[in-house]
Amino acid sequence: MHLRPDTALALSRQRWLRRAPTTALLLAAVCTAIAVMFTLASGGTFRYRLLYSFCIGLACVTINDGGGLLHAWLYDHVRAWRGLAPSSAGWDSGWAGVWPSTVACVLLGPPLGQWLADAITGFNSPPIYDLASRNTQVTLFVSLLATLAFIGVISSRERLASAKAQAEAAERAAAENQLKLLQSQLEPHMLFNTLANLRVLIGVDAAAAQQMLDRLIAFLRATLEASRLPAHPLATEYARVADYLALMAIRMGPRLQVVLELPPALAAQPVPPLLLQPLVENAIKHGLEPHVAGGRLVVSAHADGEMLVLQVRDTGIGLAQAATATAGTRFGLAQVRERLATLHGARASLVVAPAPDADGGTVATIRLPRTAVPVAAPATLPTPTP
């Protein structure tokens, strides 16, 4: 039977399937313990004690779980009758979804289980609610106590699991909202910087400004859809970086040398959109542009075990001189760090450090967990130079 995922009955069935193994183990343990206790206390054959104990326990569990499913079904139909949309929220809040099944368990579970055991064995046991018999008094008391304890444990576990699931859902929703906010802040940051460069270029070289404007329109068209996705292939991220560098090459000319290194094995690796672009922008603005001779920009990727390592290396003026030569808010770096922390916590990092070789400059390194499920990569990878 196919159920809509947003109905109370669908949620109730999912919970029942999830807790079924635990319920079966707990039922077996409780029923066995009761059978052992009765056998030691009043004698009798253990296998019959165990059979009666299991039948009563099974009847109680069936009534309890069936009552929960019935309550969810009624909740859905009442909402439909009132013209409301299906909802799984609130149907089992408080005792509304527990006490009817609990009362039914206590009243109907023991006699129904005893009747089932009598049908199997052929015995004719005295009624379980016959309080005149000392044996039935003890049996009834233990059955009721075990039923209440069993239902209490199962209900508590279910409510804890439900509360945990709701907390995780709220946390995921908050993380998604934060990522959307960070991306909406990041895109205007890049756009405003490019428009400022375009404004300067208009007064210096109108033809180059026209070419840059055409590149900007193409870049925004290609980036708009990708930036609204939670992830896209690393090859697509490289393509967006290549588009951005094509814009920068119009302004900087031969002063900007670009190398894009992407192993084919990592082309389909999912990454958050616009992850590399702010690092490339920082490298140009604070490293290469202030450098009279310009320099080289290298974007590379490689796998390190279960981690993906992305690097943006420039041969510009370096961190020490950049701190005094240019004014910056470090907005792009802060956004990248926040996005990585939101997605992967402490498992991901961004480190910006001086380049370790004689060419000088700065290297920004991102480390994040590799995703096992790849996404479709573009048919062609970005060219090494914009």
Any descriptors?
386 residues, alpha+beta, 62% helix
Describe this structure in words.
- With 386 residues, this protein is α+β, with helices and mostly antiparallel strands.
- 62% of the residues lie in helices and 11% in strands.
- The protein has helices spanning 8-42, 46-81, 99-121, 134-204, 206-226, 234-252, 277-288, 318-325, 331-344; strands spanning 232-233, 256-261, 270-271, 295-304, 307-314, 349-354, 362-369.
- Strand 6 (349-354) and strand 7 (362-369) form a beta hairpin.
- The longest helix has 71 residues, at 134-204.
- The radius of gyration is 34 Å and the shape is elongated.
- The two termini are 55 Å apart.
- The model has no long low-confidence stretch (mean pLDDT 77).
Topology diagram in text:
Blueprint: H1 8-42, H2 46-81, H3 99-121, H4 134-204, H5 206-226, E1 232-233, H6 234-252, E2 256-261, E3 270-271, H7 277-288, E4 295-304, E5 307-314, H8 318-325, H9 331-344, E6 349-354, E7 362-369
Helix pairs in contact: 1-2, 1-4, 2-3, 3-4, 4-5, 4-9, 5-6
Q: Compute the number of strand runs.
A: 7
- Residue windows where pLDDT falls under 50 for at least 5 positions: none
Helix content range of the residues, please? 55-70%
H-E order: HHHHHEHEEHEEHHEE
Structural class call reads alpha+beta
As a whole number of angstroms, the C-alpha radius of gyration is 34 Å
Beta-strand share of residues? 5-15%
- Total helical segments: 9
Tell the overall outline.
elongated
Residue-averaged pLDDT, rounded?
A: 77
Strand order of the largest sheet: 2-4-5-7-6
